[in-house]
Amino acid sequence: MNSPLSFEQLKFDVWLIEQLQAAPYPGVTLAELKRRWASMPGHKSGLSRERLTTHRHNIKSFLGVEIEATDRKHYRIINPHALSLDSLANDLLKSIQNYTFLQEYKELGDLIQPEKIETGSRYLQQIGQALRDKQKMKITYKKFSEEKSYDAVIHPYCLKADKGRWYLLACKEGSVHQESLQCFALDRALQLTLIPETFIPNPEINIATYFHDCFGIWHDYENYPVKDVTISCTEKVANYLRTLPLHHSQKEDAFREGKDGRIIFHYHISPSPDFIAELSKWGDEVLIKD
Question: What percent of the chain has pLDDT over 90?
């Protein structure tokens, strides 16, 4: 079993990926990487070719990102799609970037206030094991809209974070909808435990595509069928959307609308109420076009 990566290892891995992501073709030479690393504050050791090779292997192992010097001189990421916006590797990289930053500057205390996921975290280890081993779980669950809780045996398929909460997507054993996924918010789980029984996943459930056309956690294609949605917005809102797209399908139109030159964005998405609410928070600075 591989030993856990140290803070210093993670810090260097993140730094290396950041250097190569920002580098134009054909990449960055070892000499240039050495110069940049030496100028970094707080680094504890130099950069050798052997060390670079070790970190390249680490990065490929836990992120699937391949770094090579195909011309034997310039290092670059040869599969940049591995870090696409909706990829797990991109989510992991962002988490590691946040961790290394917070760890390095933890003495600043309240001067740094990251967004937190406060609820449900105590169940993550059990859920991780259940997802890995295809193990059943027993949940005691109470919806906000109901007075009483209920118990159920569930088959866990996916763990997803959204807007500060963890959600578990699972099939509920013995229910009339036991072959379809239900969404359980972990802050509403009164108890969640492993059962020493495994289950056979439904081959018709494809988690890789399940949320492809959703906004956040809301999955209801029957009531909110996937469609093309076009919006126009002010330049101020456009700047927010460019730097943090609402959805992976977001595309900016070259056309500018009206005298004010409003910006046009296109989406291919299930326009669920939370998607509409996200747009509505901007008031008349965002208009949904027919």
Answer: 63
**Cβ atoms < 10 Å from Cβ of 265:** 23
Q: Which residues contact 44 (CB under 8 A, 6 or more apart)?
A: 8
How far apart, in Å, are the Cα atoms of 90 and each of 62, 63, 82? Answer: 11, 8, 8
The total number of structural domains in the chain stands at: 3
**In the sheet where 227-233 sits, what is the strand order?**
251-257, 262-269, 227-233, 286-289
Sheet containing strand 28-29, strands side by side? 28-29, 74-77, 67-68
- Domain at 188, CATH number: 2.30.30
The answer to the question of residue 61 being in a domain is yes
Q: Nearest to residue 103, comparing CAs of 88, 92, 114?
A: 114
The confidence score (pLDDT) of residue 4 equals 61
Prediction pTM value: 0.72
Residue reference for tokens 């101020």: 236
Burial (CB < 10 A; 0-12, 13-18, 19+), residue 274, is middle
Average pLDDT over residues 43-69: 89
Q: Report yes or no on 60 lying in a domain.
A: yes
Torsion sign across C-alpha atoms 158, 160, 166, 172: negative
Domain-terminating residue out of 65, 81, 107: 107
Query: What value does the mean pLDDT take over residues 207-213?
Result: 92
Closest CA to 77 of 87, 90, 67: 67
- Report phi then psi at 54, rounded to 5: -60, -45
Least confident of 116-130, 131-145, 230-244: 116-130
Does residue 211 belong to any structural domain of this protein? no
Please give the Cα distance from 8 to 104 (Å, whole number).
10
120/203 Cα distance (integer angstroms) = 28
